[in-house]
Design brief:
Two copies of one chain form a homodimer.
Chain A lengths: L6 E2 L3 H13 L2 E7 L6 E7 L1 E2 L5 E6 L3 H8 L2 E6 L13 E11 L4 H13 L12 E14 L5 E4 L1 H9 L1
Parallel strand pairs in A: 1-9
Antiparallel strand pairs in A: 2-3, 2-6, 4-5, 5-8, 6-7, 7-8, 8-9
Helix pairs in contact in A: 1-4
Chain lengths: 166, 166
């Protein structure tokens, strides 16, 4: 790749930062591969968590990323949105590489997810039951944390699991 | 794709919104295809414009997206960052599908781009001449504007060109 790897060994401070970025996220950028062209695309989506702490979203079946994920469920999330102050490019953020699974309505898993999502995002009651909306659950396969200039760390799923169970 | 296309005909108001999102962007999300896995990835990058108004960025050769774009220069940008108030998911944003070209240093094009970028982003003088940093220019091939709930518009390169020449 390169002859100089700028990535540092992942430590507990990095893990805590990654877990807080996931826990605090309310929206993020979702990257997918366009089914028709094979080119990448990226869109803004709502982010919540399921009862185990895994990232989830609620998207419309009319969205182009729904079509993309139906054809190829590999995707990536960018989480960690800058606030109104400071340099956005030094604000901590992370890329999570994931696979996305649709959660079918009418199942127990859907009912539990719906209740959890509504509790944490009350405004979603406006559209959560729209017939064209569907839940996606993300399974994290790896990631990269950028804690600011010169602070890059590789993330394994286990680095975020503490947040999912604690 | 779907039996119901939620995309409206692109009008002058939509074009003006798209041009302002491009003009005002200082950072955004860049989606690429990972060279090793073929899966999508997404990262936060600085966004500026070249003297013609086309989007550009300055990235490190050590970054994984540099490796990805060297192998496959198809990419996508998400521009239009929410402010501190209001619902981030109703804030206007757009996806631009692009190809990315590296701008070699030591060329006239690089000198003009460097001067323009420095003028608009003075803080970049801290790293603009680092040997591992390189400019990327994005050529827009199409896009999708989301002006808020129910306000989606497809974008052709010409919809943004008025900003590039005006």
């Amino acid at each position: 790749m390169t002859d100089k790897d700028p990535v540092q060994p992942t430590d507990d401070e990095a893990r805590a930062l990654a877990r807080s970025l996931l826990h605090d996220a309310t929206f993020g950028a979702l990257a997918v591969i366009d089914a028709a062209t094979g080119a990448p695309s990226v869109t803004r989506i709502a982010i919540g968590t399921d009862p185990t702490g895994a990232p989830v979203t609620l998207i419309s079946r009319l969205a182009t990323h729904h079509t993309a994920l139906t054809a190829d469920n590999r995707c990536a999330l960018l989480l960690g949105e800058p606030g109104p102050k400071g340099d956005p490019l030094t604000h901590p953020r992370m890329t999570l590489h994931c696979t996305a699974e649709f959660v079918a309505s009418g199942t127990e898993a859907h009912a539990a997810l719906r209740a959890h999502y509504l509790a944490s995002r009350p405004k979603s009651k406006l559209y959560i039951d729209f017939p064209d909306f569907t839940f996606l659950r993300f399974t994290i396969t790896g990631g990269l944390l950028n804690g600011g200039f010169g602070r890059a760390f590789r993330l394994a799923p286990a680095d975020l699991v503490a947040a999912l169970t604690g």
